[in-house]
Design a protein that fits this description.
With 166 residues, the chain is an alpha+beta fold. It has helices spanning 2-21, 35-43; strands at 51-55, 65-68, 78-83, 110-124, 129-143. It is built from two helices and five strands; from the N terminus they run H-H-E-E-E-E-E. A five-stranded mixed beta barrel has the order 1-2-3-5-4.
Length: 166
């Protein structure tokens, strides 16, 4: 009897851990191309001395989003905090401004991001993560609606961290 209870408890723990580690928090809601179309687009991207950045806004967090090198998949990207002493981030606006004109308005926009990693890390207390710091020097908007980032199954929620590498 005790053995059966331990097995049941272990099974419940495994199920809970798997749910907590999943990025599934709802039905896919980011739209976008097929996986094949995304792979082809990445393979034909212009290269240069910049990164592709995808803005990822979650309320009360201080990270900016994900950066990846040209022609690399999102799985090789890094979630970063911007150092803005040379250039402010694209959405550096008041957090309580009118909709469409406030901090985070550009979530999931894709940018070409110029600058470099500082070699420092910074702690974002609201996401409980230690992240690399990137010194932003410039940016260019590439796409306002690029769709999913890691997978067509991606789910975005503005109040919860739902997008991470698989």
């Amino acid at each position: 009897m005790l053995h059966l209870k331990l097995v049941s408890i272990a099974a419940a723990c495994i199920a809970l851990c798997q749910c907590a580690g999943s990025n599934y928090s709802g039905p896919p809601n980011m739209g976008g191309p097929t996986e094949e179309e995304r792979q082809a687009a990445i393979a034909s991207e212009p290269t240069g001395n910049f990164y592709y950045g995808r803005r990822y806004y979650v309320e009360k967090t201080r990270f900016w989003g994900y950066l990846r090198e040209p022609r690399q998949s999102a799985d090789k990207s890094k979630l970063v905090i911007f150092k803005e002493n040379q250039m402010k981030s694209p959405d550096r606006l008041p957090e309580d401004g009118p909709p469409g004109d406030r901090y985070g308005f550009d979530t999931n926009y894709e940018y070409r991001v110029y600058g470099n990693y500082t070699g420092e890390n910074a702690y974002d207390p609201n996401s409980n993560q230690i992240l690399p710091v990137f010194a932003l020097t410039n940016y260019e908007l590439v796409n306002r609606q690029p769709g999913w980032f890691f997978s067509p199954k991606d789910y975005y929620h503005s109040q919860r961290f739902t997008l991470w590498k698989h």
